[in-house]
Amino acid sequence: MFRLLVVDDEKIIADGLYEVLRYLPNLELDVYKAYSGEEAVRLFDRTRFDIVLSDIRMPGISGLQLLDKIREKWPTCKVIFLTGHNEFSYIYSAIQYDGVSYLLKTEGYEKVIEVVGQSVREIELELKNESLLKQAQEQLYTTREMMQNDYVKGILNEQLNIREINQQQLDELGLPLRADESVLILLGRVNSFQNKSMYSYRTSQLYRIKRIAGQYISAHAVYVETVNEKSDLIWLIQPLPGHAAADGWDQVLTYIKGNLELIQLACRESVGEVLSFVLDDSPVSWEQAAERFSILQMLMNYRIGQGSGMLLLDKQLIRQEMRQAEKWGAKKPSFRHSRLEQLRDQLEHGQREEFEKTLQECAFTFAAVDSMHYTPAMEVYYAIGLVFLTYMNRWDLVDTVAAKVGMHKLMQPGEHESWQEAFGYLIQVGELLFSLQSQEEERRATAVILIVQKHILEHLHDPDEISLVRLAELVFFNPSYLSRLFKQVTEINLSEYISSARMNKAKQLLGNPDIKIQEVAELVGYGTATNFTRSFRKSINMTPQEYRSLVLSR
């Protein structure tokens, strides 16, 4: 829906154009009117306008002066000037600008509708314009590094579906890696950051470190790099294209191992930072990258503690940790805590299907565990329960949930007979929260629409009070969103509701013979009997007087 403003100091002209343009079904315009340039400028401060239809000569701020204000506030707005035959030289300079056209005042409403329709089509075309797409593409390049970082972190934190890890995605993001090739993971930590917590300092230092490391790594490998929320540096590395798989990996591993100490030294000398590194001892598939990365994080945290400058390259040590994880495979179910963050995000963003899938995966992990004293399962149960409890407290849902499923079990896994039953209870709570979330969204939407409808019915006599901009301000929404929400809840357009409310009120008033037609017109917001009669005939197929006679004759 586009917004159009009619500006004319002659009220009869402004009112007439307003009534003609506001009910064009094929254009769906949100139409406003102003009786002076000053009033128009005040409206420009409140909302965006897409088309302005203005008289060229007005007292105070003229049409040409208004054009300057429009270009300052809303530069893409289309401007249509109404002019007389003897004013063409006055307007000539204005129509040299893009988006400015004119109409002769003698051309009538049909010509006005035609020119306004043309302006609407031009706006729609510009929204699809190739230049805008080109501009968006240029902006995409400037944000590519951020998108690359998010993509890599999504892989390592299991926030991406495995289907999203493919060559097309890598190419579109400009990542020089191959989806059909394994990756080698290198994890680095700046130990000397612990006493320097300023964000700008950390960011600039990490940038310098990445550049130094890149100079060494790029000679024998291709890579992508990212920094996680803990300011750890992560590299995903592959051999240079064209190298045989086995020989390529042997060369890369030998080269990276041989240069990590030089990278540490260079960063210490030129950047003034102390780094620790953990290098994986073998490449890993993309599907297993998140699991392998969690092992490297464990090694980094476990081995260095508060120490600094560690360089962990011993494959036996890494394999020992990996074998331990495999050894636990039959006894200790594998659970990565990134799933808890996924659950939290999915609940907050209303992603019901994704949430249910993640929660089912958590339940499946511990379904076969016999002992209810198994601490890893207890840890996960408590963590999920805390996610739920935090959400319920924030939205004041504790009493509602307690009445339906029993809150006493939420932080008490011992209340359940088995882990299968315990996680089944969590699934039940999750389903309830999403149902309550959906109900609450519907309740809020209905409450907003009731406020809007009540305001409309109480202010039918005042067009300014029932404009889309004013109604949006009333409920603190964007006008376009309010328009969509109203249609979603009521299944009719907001303009249709206003028109229907006006007609119903008019028919009620016309049943009273003591109220004049002009008074009825004013009470339902049409201003003049002429505008009211035109709209009433269009809606009811008879004039107000004919309708009154029909009602009173019964």
UniProtKB/TrEMBL annotation:
<dbReference type="InterPro" id="IPR011006">
    <property type="entry name" value="CheY-like_superfamily"/>
</dbReference>
<dbReference type="Pfam" id="PF00072">
    <property type="entry name" value="Response_reg"/>
</dbReference>
<feature type="domain" description="HTH araC/xylS-type">
    <location>
        <begin position="450"/>
        <end position="550"/>
    </location>
</feature>
<keyword id="KW-0238">DNA-binding</keyword>
<keyword id="KW-0804">Transcription</keyword>
<dbReference type="InterPro" id="IPR020449">
    <property type="entry name" value="Tscrpt_reg_AraC-type_HTH"/>
</dbReference>
<dbReference type="InterPro" id="IPR001789">
    <property type="entry name" value="Sig_transdc_resp-reg_receiver"/>
</dbReference>
<dbReference type="GO" id="GO:0003677">
    <property type="term" value="F:DNA binding"/>
</dbReference>
<dbReference type="InterPro" id="IPR009057">
    <property type="entry name" value="Homeodomain-like_sf"/>
</dbReference>
<feature type="domain" description="Response regulatory">
    <location>
        <begin position="3"/>
        <end position="120"/>
    </location>
</feature>
<keyword id="KW-0805">Transcription regulation</keyword>
<feature type="modified residue" description="4-aspartylphosphate">
    <location>
        <position position="55"/>
    </location>
</feature>
<dbReference type="InterPro" id="IPR018060">
    <property type="entry name" value="HTH_AraC"/>
</dbReference>
<keyword id="KW-0597">Phosphoprotein</keyword>
<protein>
    <submittedName>
        <fullName>DNA-binding response regulator</fullName>
    </submittedName>
</protein>
<dbReference type="InterPro" id="IPR018062">
    <property type="entry name" value="HTH_AraC-typ_CS"/>
</dbReference>
<dbReference type="Pfam" id="PF12833">
    <property type="entry name" value="HTH_18"/>
</dbReference>
